Amino acid sequence: MAESIDLNDGTSIPQLGFGVFKIDPAETTEAVLRALEIGYRHVDTAEMYGNEREVGEAVRTSGLDREDVYITSKLNNGEHRPDDARRAFDGTLSALGFDTVDLYLIHWPLPTRYDGDFVSTWKVLEEFKADGRARSIGVSNFQVAHLELLAAEADVTPAVNQIELHLYFLNEEVRTYGEARGIATEAWSPIARGDVLDDPVVTGIAERIGRPPSQVVLRWHIQRGSIVFPKSTSPARMRENFEIFDFELEPGEMEQIAGLDRGESGRRGPNPDTFGG
Ligand SMILES: NC(=O)c1ccc[n+]([C@@H]2O[C@H](COP(=O)([O-])OP(=O)(O)OC[C@H]3O[C@@H](n4cnc5c(N)ncnc54)[C@H](OP(=O)(O)O)[C@@H]3O)[C@@H](O)[C@H]2O)c1
Questions:
Q1: Residue 159: which of 184, 123, 132 has the closest Cα?
Q2: pLDDT-based confidence at 213, cuts 50/70/90?
Q3: What is the DSSP annotation of 4-63?
Q4: Counting beta carbons within 10 angstroms of the beta carbon of residue 168, is it exposed (0 to 12), middle (13 to 18) or buried (19 or more)?
């Protein structure tokens, strides 16, 4: 059973969820339904993914109570201006078909756009939290400098920062900054879209302990306290990714895996300092 992480606003989030980036809308309801059947209770979507409607549909079809499924969505890059953000959030709730989301994030900081102003966008998310339509609010792809600006100018500390983080890119400066300030880290692309699964360090540990490489990698994230939501459209792989709470990696194995970090050269996605959406 997935464990929960306490967030800085008094709520909690299932540490393991299901990501739906790059799942075709036509396949999303089915995929999320399978994930919910397996036991996932946390779904990470975004307006950008084009499948919020189907995520909501899956939750309704599952027969589960809305409160039993943790749902995250994100503000799209073209909508940072305050009135656009308000409209976008209304659109997200209406696409999902729910009155609230559990967590709403600014998808990217976009420091080269909007005159570098993501603070007024963040203040609009603070409104959504104040009116109860977002139980928690957070950011994604924020660097330390971006978080420092929010700390100086905003009222609410982000509950989470969702960042690229996998074995070849530990993103350690951003993660430890969050850890020191109560901002939980969500690791996107936790298995680097499969690319870390045949690393000899991972396969070596996997063979020694008799678990698949995916479980070794996801377990490593869990033991470091990160929140993860691997994406899969295969029920077998969804199940494999879910069964990570009945074993533990030893400190030596944890360290060996962390040693795979390639620093900045291991980054696969865009650099948030320059990405303009
Ligand atoms: N905030 C952001 O900017 C941002 C950016 C990227 C992603 N995300 C979020 O993070 C989630 C996860 O990241 P991601 O989708 O980029 O990558 P990921 O979860 O690291 O990897 C997904 C890929 O790995 C394959 N896979 C999954 N489980 C596997 C297993 N057990 N064995 C072998 N292959 C496996 C999947 O293929 P199959 O489907 O064929 O199984 C898929 O191609 C996304 O869905 C999204 O919610 C956020």
A1: 184
A2: very high
A3: EEE-TTS-EEESB-EE-TT--HHHHHHHHHHHHHHT--EEE--GGGT-HHHHHHHHHHHT
A4: middle
**What are the pLDDT digits (tens) for 14-59?**
999 999 999 999 999 999 999 999 999 999 999 999 999 999 999 9
Q: Indicate the SS3 state at residue 165.
A: coil
Cα(115) to centroid of ligand 1, in Å? Answer: 32
Beta bridge partners of 134: 101
CA-to-CA distance for 114 and 45, rounded, in angstroms? 24
Rounded-to-integer distance, Cα 217 and Cα 42, Å: 19
Report the C-alpha gap between 91 and 85 in whole angstroms: 10
177 belongs to the catalytic site: no
Q: What's the 188 CA to ligand 1 centre distance in angstroms?
A: 8
Q: What is the DSSP string of 212-269?
A: -HHHHHHHHHHHTT-EE----S-HHHHHHHH--SS----HHHHHHHHTT--GGGG--S
Cβ of residue 161 lying under 6 Å from some atom of ligand 1: no
- Which of 75, 231, 242, 244 to mutate to test ligand 1, by most ligand atoms within 8 A of the CB atom? 231
